[in-house]
Amino acid sequence: MASGEDAGFPPVAALRRDFLWGASTSAYQIEGATHEDGRGPSVWDTDGRRGRIEGKDTGDAACDHYHRYPEDVALMQRLGLAAYRFSVGWPRVLPQGRGTPNEAGLAFYDRLIDALLAARIEPWLCLYHWDMPQALDDLGGWTNRDSSQWFADYAALVADRYGDRVKRFATFNEPSIFTLFGYGFGKNQRDKSGVEAFHRGIHHINLSHGAAVDAIRARVPGASIGAIHNVQPCLPSSPADTDGARMADAYWNRAFPDPQYRGVYPDALQAAVEPLMQPGDLARIHRPLDWFGLNHYSPVYVRNAPDAFFRFDFGDRPPGTPVTPIDWPVDAPAFRDTLLRVSRDYGLPVYVTENGLGGSDKPDDGGAVRDDNRIAFLRAYIAAVNEAVAAGADIRGYFVWSLLDNFEWDAGYGVRFGLVYVDYPTQKRIPKASFSWYRDLIKSARAAA
Predict the structure, then answer these.
(1) Taking the model in full, what pTM does it have?
(2) Is 354 annotated in the active site?
(3) Does the bond joining 402 to the residue before it have cis omega, within 30 degrees of 0?
């Protein structure tokens, strides 16, 4: 592997011979075509229409992946990806979230999956990446216990349609993030109704996860099923903030993996969740799983906040902490330690399903996009994967976030995570320097294996 290291690649000697190299995206962030072929609105369409996104951006066009997926699959093939994680847009295949399926929407994912398989790229299908159908949100969304049946029916539809070709399924992407930020921060944190809605959301999402696992198992022989969680070290901003750090860890890192993978809620949540429990709920949540999906970007520094309903809030990081262009701390050793913790605590193979650097990349005068900071970040963090494996963690794959620059939620189009630059007015794709670096890393790692 000496030549690879000389080329600026991290050591990968500890990784398995069948280590899986991939990239991730999500439906609403790249597809566009929000008003085409019978798709229904999602909660993000509503937020965009109300001007709640930075720059008044919307996902209406995004990366136009709905029409340009053959070009994007060709880019994946150029990268040498073994796997591609994408999500199905719930409102694209079920415009009202339930009821009559939308054949045109279902057919789009048929075409995408077939194109991936033709390119010898394994499809990893995530059922939910934050795009709740607006029609279901109007009925209470995840705060409504009926959501577990809505989600089970949706999972059954997807499994029936694609299970002949897709074997890797994830139920949810980052449930802690869309609950923490959807029900909490900056939104009436002292409002008791907010506390109740927040905990209902947690419990009903966990029930929905278990129901979806059962629906997929019943329909897809040989399915390999997991869930994807955002796990970040929650560190006290000062020695006095340890209580806040413990609460942050419980809500951010354990509220979903612990019941899903271990059959228990964290102690810090027990009193709040207990009134929502019905007999057999934990058994319904704790279904057999095959792998743990880990999304990781940076540590989170928190402080005690007794008056907030989470009882913690964001705090100051230590002076001099290196940060990314969007001000997220850079700490590759924390990533190594997180990998070791997750592998130890949950006892299943771990796949890194998101990791990457957000910036404000743009082409230079010659049209090239030099993102050396992203390359340095990926080099350090992939080296941390190697270190974790050498220390005993069972890590089976790495999916970079993201294949393409895209709609980055509340930040709109102002933040770019992609290996491929997207010129949004023209939809031109320009592979960045990191694209070539990642391609060559994959090639070098395979040769070393």
Answers:
(1) 0.97
(2) yes
(3) yes
